[in-house]
Specification:
The protein is of the alpha+beta class and 135 residues long. It contains three helices and eight strands. It binds zinc ion.
Length: 135
């Protein structure tokens, strides 16, 4: 298991990107992920990436997160080589998952979320990177 990215919920992607650019980071990928109701931007750093998430509508889970808690750290994502296997293992060990099956994520990846109730209050995302790693 290896850190893939830190998901940060933001109200405005453009404003947040400006702030992260001031830290010396650069956007390498930007995409609307319709299935999650977000527009995302990836900004790599040594050892991982930030994933900034702006909700595309009020029904977006990220919009509800910001409404309840304000902008901030939304999830931690770890890269796995076989997501179907990892998800099955977690379920077999009794962890509560949000996605019973892996589903398409950003940048050609497959993703599945583990419920914070099983991970000390942290929303955990499993990511099996797609073909376009490092894009
Ligand atoms: Zn993510």
């Amino acid at each position: 298991m290896k850190l893939d990215h830190l998901g940060v919920a933001v109200r405005s992607l453009d404003e947040a990107i400006g702030a992260y650019q001031a830290l010396g980071l650069a956007v390498v990928h930007r995409e609307v992920v319709e299935s999650d109701g977000v527009e995302i931007a990836f900004l790599p750093f040594d050892g991982g990436r930030f994933e900034l998430l702006e909700p595309t509508g009020e029904a977006s889970p990220v919009a509800r997160f910001i409404e309840r808690r304000g902008p901030g750290l939304h999830h931690v994502a770890v890269a796995v080589s076989d997501i179907r296997q990892s998800l099955g293992d977690l379920k077999a060990r009794g962890l509560r998952v949000i996605d019973n099956e892996p589903r398409p994520g950003a940048n050609g990846s497959m993703v599945a979320f583990v419920h914070p109730a099983s991970t000390g209050g942290v929303l955990l995302e499993l990511v099996q990177p797609g073909e376009h790693v490092g894009e």
